[in-house]
Amino acid sequence: MKKALIIVDVQNDFCEGGALAVPEANEVIPYINLLMEENEYDQIVLTQDWHPADHKSFASNNNRKVGESIILNGVPQFMWPDHCVQGTFGAEFHKDLNRDKVTHIIQKGKNTEIDSYSGFQDNNHFMKTGLDDFLKYHDIQLLEIVGLALDYCVKFTCTDAIANGYITCLHFNGTKAVNVKPDNGRDAIYDLIQKGITVLG
Description:
The chain is of the alpha/beta class. The chain is built from 4 helices and 8 strands.
């Protein structure tokens, strides 16, 4: 059975000192590097938030405060600080992430009008990123998923992975939650287990 490691959004803006820093995010990087060193993956894929500066998910572009919600193209949209803007330092992968074995990069969130938490598709399920096509082309059946943040991009990537027919495993030690609300990370784990995703300790 061919397997791939999906590394979600390990970018400067989500790490320590970033515009949308995930608590303890930097702690997952050595774990992810160790996974790549100790395991044989047929593919290693990075996803990368890659927003235009005028993205509608940014509070600054809607005259809103960070943390408010709006309806954006028919779906609820949390208002985020500006982050992972195309071509900026914040959008770059963290320097400590070992990319020697990476075989593919998927960029998401490029459409100004709709956010894209999942590595597979946007939040409206209108546009695919090409990740599913890439994995199917390479006969991947098993996905192991790590990265940032557990309660948003990792959760939605896991959910779409299992919906697309992959055996899906989440490495608990390879992810951290934003926890906009204190229990978001815990609730995400429960939700993923109920969907049939294996959580590796």
